[in-house]
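Q: Structure tokens for this one, please.
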Amino acid sequence: MTLQQNTDRIQTTHIGSLPRPHHLLDQLKAKLSGKPFDEKAFDAALRQAVADVVKRQVDCGIDIVTDGEFSKPGFFTYVQERLSGFEPRPNQKLLLFQKEVAAFPEYYADYFKQAMMGGAIVPLSPVVCTGPVQYRGQAPLARDIENLKAAAKAAGVPLHHVFLPATAPSGVGINEYYRSDEEYFHAVAAAMSAQYRAIADAGILVQIDDPFLADIFVEPGLDDAGKRRRAEIYVEAINIGLQGIPPERVRFHTCYGINEGPRLYEASLKELIGFMLKINAGSYSFEAANPRHEHEYHLFETVKIPDGKVLCPGVITHASNIVEHPELICERLLRFANLVGRSNVIAAADCGFSSQALYRTEVHHTVVWEKFKAMREGAELASRKLWKH
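A: Here is the predicted structure, written as tokens:
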């Protein structure tokens, strides 16, 4: 058995981001807006919030836990904090889900206002690479690792059941400095490798977050050859960043970048799977619990995963406040287990429940915990059937 495989039951996890406590959001907002700010008070509040959220995950039956990404306001701010060579462009329009937005402009105008952008603690704007990329996030990373290890120890969680998300090189920004995409993404990967290695060296699982891989396949202006080449560049960059880290210490997550919406213009898992399995990870997480993607488990009737690799399909979704029934969660897990083996399926969520630091998340914070409890119950039902106990 490898590190991430099941032994006698289906394990449970999630993708990372969770709704932040409002008092912590207030302090983050003050910090980022330049208002009077007490760094020691924030550090103490963050440490306690991480301890609380890890304990609550355990109480809900989550086996493989994280810090809720409580220290991170979102991808764009995170990039500027952790890497040099980037600058924000607040006057430049942020292009998201272009085909979706073009097809449903009224819906997404309201969606962005109410959900993704309306409740964010800082305005979302593009981040552009204008100079050499270097890693400078050692201090905040050390704080995140220390807080998570302390919280896990207090909650009785072994380190091999702890993960910490980190963005993929493809999610870092727009290149205006390097001569080619390959040169740019390789430079970002070399810089981000410092973060990946520090997490792994701490005994914590590294989760690579890469919703951007899926975006390629609905990107305007790319033909099929261009999509394949871009995907290959993304995979190459991730593997460069992961050099020297055993795959069993790595989780990979991809999704489609939006929560509640029509979602007509998204990649299929069939388009992604070949590239995804080239990434040097021990497990692979993807959406499988929403009506646009649940049927895709059939793909594994023909696609064989490599020995020792684990799938973490979403069995609860971040796109609805409906709490999934444990019997349905059990059915979803059995579908995958019957195709790839009971040792190779971990119950997970489709995506995070607060990828940006928001005052108002689409799935209410009280509902998130009920979804986790249902996932635990569904995993227990599936385990009894699979292990006959």
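A few notes: Strands lie at 83-88, 127-135, 163-167, 174-175, 205-209, 250-253, 283-286, 310-316, 348-349. Residues 365-387 form the longest helix (23 residues).
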